[in-house]
Structures are given as C-alpha cells and as structure tokens.
Design brief:
This protein is of the alpha/beta class. The chain has helices at about 20-30, 45-55, 60-80, 95-105, 120-130, 175-190, 205-210, 215-235, 290-300; strands at about 85-90, 110-115, 140, 160-165, 195-200, 240-250, 255-260, 265-270, 270-275, 280-290, 305-310, 315-325. A seven-stranded mixed beta sheet has the order 3-2-1-4-5-12-11, with helices on both faces. Strands 6-7-10 form a three-stranded antiparallel beta sheet. A two-stranded antiparallel sheet has the order 8-9. Helix 2 runs antiparallel to helix 8. The structure holds S-adenosyl-L-homocysteine and N,N-dimethyl-L-histidine.
C-alpha cells in the first residue's frame, strides 16, 4: 500500500502516524525544491526541545532573559485584572517557564491550555506546573498551533487570553504571520486578548552571535534536524557532510539558519536520491526581527487592535498587548 502524498515514494509502515506521514511529505517536498528547505517546527523533537532550552540560557541568546525580565517588571500591568473566569491559551508553550510569571499573577484562572508540537516539552511543563499550581486545571494540546483551536466543551464559552511569547511569530514569513495572528483572533474571540513577545531589529553582530554561539549549541540544534530525520527515516545524512550557518538577511530583516553541504553528495532518503553540491544549503529557519511599529502594523492587518507595548531599556525585545475590538 502506498500513501496518497504526491511525492511520497515510500510504503506506509505499520505504526506510522499521521504526524510521521506529514513529516515525510514535508521532507520530500522541501528537499525536491530548487532551493532546499525544511519547516522549522520539525526542529523540536525531544532532543530539539532540550537543545532549545540550552540555547535560552546562553549569554549570547538575549531574547529569553530579556523577555523574562520585561514580564517580571510589568506583570502587574500585563496580567492585572485578567484571569477571573478566563482561560489562558499559550501557543508554542515549550517549557512554560515564562508562563509561570503570568500564572502567579492570575490566581482565578479557569484553565491553562498550553499548545505545542513537542509532546515531551508539554509533559515536563505539566508535571512542574501542577506541583506549583495544584488547583490549576491544565489541559495540554499536542499539535500545530496554526490549526483552529478546539477546547474541551466546559471551556468553550469562557473568555480567552492568548499568550504567544518567545518571538515564535518571527519564525513565520510575513503572510503566514498575518494569517496566524488572524487565526488566533478567531480562536480567542469574542473579546479575546493576545500578549505576544516580539524580538526587535538590532545590529547584525548581536543578532549573528545569538544564532551562532561559540559553544555550538545553536549549531547542534540546527544539525539535530538531520539527526532527527536519520532517527525517524534513516540512516540517510552523513552528519560530517553538513555544517550550521546563521545568515543575516537585511532586506527581509531576518536571521536565517541554514545547513550547508560541505561537499558534493547524494542523500538516499524516503525512496529518493537528493543531490547536494558543495556549498548548497537546506534553509531550516527564519527568525524575523520587527520594529515596534512594524509589528503593530502587522497586528492591525490581522484585525487586532494594538494596545500597550513594553520593552527593555536597551530596546532589544518587546511585549505587545493586542485586543479584539
Ligand atoms: N514559548 C517558549 C518556547 C519558544 S520555542 C518560550 O518563549 O521560550 C518555540 C516553541 O514552539 C517550541 O516549544 C516548539 O515546539 C513550538 N512550536 C513551533 N512550531 C509550532 C507549531 N507549528 N505548532 C505548535 N507548536 C510549535
Ligand atoms: C523559537 N524561536 C523564536 C527561536 C528564535 O530565536 O527564532 C528559535 C531559535 N532558533 C535558533 N535559536 C533559537
């Protein structure tokens, strides 16, 4: 039996899930294109989520500690008056560490719904949070946050607050980012509110160091994409044949992560032969950097009303409050 995916020359294997099939199809599509790429959400398997957590503690990776400091400094304003009878929905929740700051200031929340593609990250976060907040109803959703939100029946009619920290919005192209903010508005309406963390445009040197740290943790995070493919569908990639590169694309105001082929090589994967010439890359992630006004304009295009904005003194990072009215 053969799957329906148009490029998928691979038999369905017993035990394959829909998720495996979607990943396999994305690999074949991405590596068959003239400019090779892989969707960045596949960076986050169990190992990828652990490596991302290590990135967040690096001295060069300023976003996490800066956003955390902004949240701590302004939690009264950000969360004040919110939470009573409401559901907090977090998109791409990962470790939910920043969420703890908000949860501490929202004692009357009805439920917390973390959504993530990384099952391990969701499980670890639930374990930790249920110890710290034993009375909180935690309802993890394992899945893609770009899909329409389906809440358990008893929560469907509660007012919803969205939380989208980490500048994960920056990982989407402009059109996709607008569509995602629109879909969040639909999921959170009526009377919805979104608190979103957005990394700000800054000098190239700071940006490149944040995405190419000397300890090589970001390189390991990026190369884990190939290791994951080898684990799930391989062996296919020779890991010494590829290296990590972080590029600043000034025109598009973004850092790009690439995996660069160090030699001419052919990779045998999923019934296909993917040819790489020396220097050719697989584009694995974009991380767009916004200005405060640029993000507010994008939010408006998605139908939100931008309200308050909080930043740090050095204007490295911003937190935006968007309302649905
Ligand atoms: N919110 C956390 C984690 C940010 S890392 C923080 O601010 O530190 C991005 C997170 O989004 C990861 O946990 C990753 O697994 C998740 N993610 C990425 N793409 C996703 C998608 N399409 N749907 C759901 N989760 C996604
Ligand atoms: C999750 N996301 C916003 C991170 C970022 O900064 O774009 C992922 C990351 N990639 C490399 N380092 C961190």
């Amino acid at each position: 039996m053969w799957p329906a995916g148009k490029h998928l020359a691979r038999p369905v294997v017993a035990g394959d899930t829909e998720e495996d099939e979607a990943f396999a199809a994305a690999i074949v599509d991405g590596l068959s294109a003239p400019t090779k790429s892989l969707p960045c959400r596949y960076l986050y398997d169990e190992r990828g989520s652990l490596l991302f957590e290590k990135i967040t503690a690096l001295p060069e990776y300023y976003p996490t500690r800066t956003e955390t400091a902004i949240l701590k400094a302004h939690v009264g304003e950000i969360a004040g008056g919110l939470g009573k009878g409401e559901v907090l929905v977090e998109f791409g929740s990962g470790s939910s560490r920043k969420t703890e700051i908000l949860l501490g200031a929202m004692p009357n929340l009805v439920a917390y719904v973390p959504i993530d593609v990384s099952e391990n990250a969701l499980e670890d976060a639930q374990r930790r949070l249920s110890k710290r907040f034993p009375n909180l109803d935690i309802r993890p959703v394992h899945g893609d946050f770009s899909q329409a939100l389906r809440l358990p029946a008893h929560l469907r009619f509660s007012r919803k607050i969205g939380f989208f920290p980490g500048s994960t919005i920056g990982n989407l192209e402009e059109g996709e980012a607008r569509a995602l903010l629109e879909s969040f508005r639909n999921s959170l309406s009526p009377g919805g509110r979104l608190v979103a963390g957005v990394d700000l445009l800054k000098d190239e040197k700071t940006l490149k160091l944040a995405y190419d740290d000397p300890a090589g943790v970001t390189a390991a995070f990026n190369l884990n994409m190939l290791e994951r493919i080898n684990r799930e569908f391989g062996p296919a990639f020779e890991l010494d044949g590829f290296s990590h590169e972080a590029r600043f694309n000034k025109e598009k105001s973004r850092i790009e992560m690439h995996l660069v082929s160090g030699r001419d090589q052919v990779v045998d994967l999923l019934g296909h032969q993917f040819a790489f010439h020396r220097g050719e890359t697989i584009h694995t992630e974009n991380s767009h950097k916004y200005t405060v006004d640029g993000f507010r304009a994008l939010a408006r295009l998605a139908g939100w009303t931008p309200n308050r904005v909080w930043t740090d003194a050095n204007k490295l990072f911003s937190i935006h409050e968007l309302t649905d009215r």
